[in-house]
Write a structure and sequence with these properties.
The chain is 46% helix and 15% strand. The protein is of the alpha+beta class.
């Protein structure tokens, strides 16, 4: 596998890197933003995203016919890496850009694509992903939020949980049960919901580090036009599965860069700080932990590059994204565990405390535990790998 960049790809990197250098807001402090709630930096993030849309730096890999740049897959990887390496404000529109947009291009109607794709590319509309429920997380197919057809409208009732940006979102991509009398995977539909509709109630979930980046969303008789179904009625499971492969697939390369940046900071911390009169970097078990964590991150990178080589040949993300998700979990846990080991007692201090190490160590550790659940738990990924890749029998 040749991973050297072509002259075209090098130029793409230079162009985007230069744009970022001139357009990241001057008052943006990425290290201070770690552990903040979205609403604390919301307007700054939105302004940056609209600026990206204005200059054509959103949806770069989307086909030109849909308003994108038609960038190659390798250019998309470069884009994700540069965005992460620059520590630019996180994109509030990532659900629309990386998941909803690709799904609409695959299975949406012409009317849906014409209505929803341009505002996503301009950074004008934010999307919310309404999948998980209190009793349907790992077993997502067990969802109970119902949609009943009433004339030309669907009437939605139920509850969703763990939805980021719901309070700011213009639109929701929501899974609902439209046929309760068929096997649970078969009776689900994927709908576009106007998040300003009457009957929607949104509350914050206060997280352990004190922030509130997630929401509960309650639907009480929410009316949705009949044509707002993505793909076919009762085919929502297939559409959602396609969407999740994008969530677990190539975009994990940007997450990888975040791990690399954090590991580099930990190495600097180990070189600059002492414990018991010795530099942390000179303590054998800490040196070993630094080395093992570096190996975990490199393994994640090699796994991603291996599958990237398949995508460059024209294959689409599939079941192998479960491998990517497991590597993501492992790498994130190891680097956050190392942070607490290095920081000692001070690493238990939340951002804002005078004793807290720079870099929000405890927030990163807490986030790593959530990583093992979000987007499909580790056990679910192992089941997919065992049963659907290796063909092993289902467990009893």
């Amino acid at each position: 596998m040749d991973i050297d960049l072509s002259p075209q790809e090098l130029e793409f990197r230079r162009e985007f890197r230069t744009w970022l250098e001139h357009n990241i807001p001057e008052n943006w402090e990425p290290r201070e933003a770690r552990g903040q709630s979205h609403h604390e930096s919301w307007e700054l993030r939105r302004d940056f995203e609209r600026r990206m849309g204005r200059d054509g730096w959103l949806g770069v890999a989307w086909p030109e016919e849909y308003g994108g740049r038609g960038a190659t897959l390798m250019e998309q990887v470069i884009y994700q890496e540069e965005l992460a390496r620059s520590e630019a404000p996180g994109l509030a529109g990532h659900v629309g850009l990386q998941m909803v947009g690709p799904i609409l291009m695959e299975v949406g109607t012409d009317e849906q694509r014409a209505r929803f794709l341009p505002p996503i590319l301009r950074g004008e509309e934010v999307w919310y992903q309404g999948f998980s429920e209190p009793n349907a997380g790992s077993d997502l197919a067990g969802l109970q939020t119902r949609a009943v057809l009433d004339g030309d409208e669907w009437v939605i009732s139920g509850q969703k949980v763990w939805g980021g940006f719901a309070e700011f979102a213009d639109w929701g991509a929501v899974l609902v049960r439209t046929d309760p009398d068929v096997p649970k995977h078969k009776g689900i539909s994927f709908m576009v919901v106007d998040m300003k509709s009457p009957g929607i109630d949104i509350s914050y979930i206060r997280e352990i580090h004190g922030g509130s980046n997630m929401n509960e969303v309650f639907f009480d008789g929410v009316r949705v036009p009949r044509d707002n179904v993505i793909s076919e009625i009762n085919d929502g499971w297939n559409a959602a599965t396609r969407l999740l492969t994008w969530e677990r697939g190539v975009i994990t390369l940007s997450i990888l860069v975040n791990h690399e940046i954090f590991w580099e900071r930990l190495r600097e911390y180990a070189l600059a700080n002492k414990r018991g009169g010795r530099r942390l970097a000179d303590i054998p078990h800490i040196r070993e932990a630094l080395a093992q964590t570096y190996v975990n991150i490199r393994m994640m990178k090699l796994a991603n590059l291996r599958w990237l080589a398949h995508y460059l040949k024209g294959e689409r993300p599939g079941l192998e994204t479960s491998y990517m998700k497991l590597y993501w979990n492992s790498a994130h846990k190891s680097v956050s565990d190392l942070a607490l080991e290095l920081g000692g007692a001070d690493a238990l201090e939340l951002p804002g405390s005078h004793a807290a190490p720079e870099g929000a160590f405890p927030v990163e550790w807490m986030a790593s535990r959530a990583t093992s659940i979000l987007g499909g738990t580790e056990d679910i990924q192992r089941n997919i790998i065992a049963e659907r890749i290796y063909g092993l029998p289902r467990g009893s």
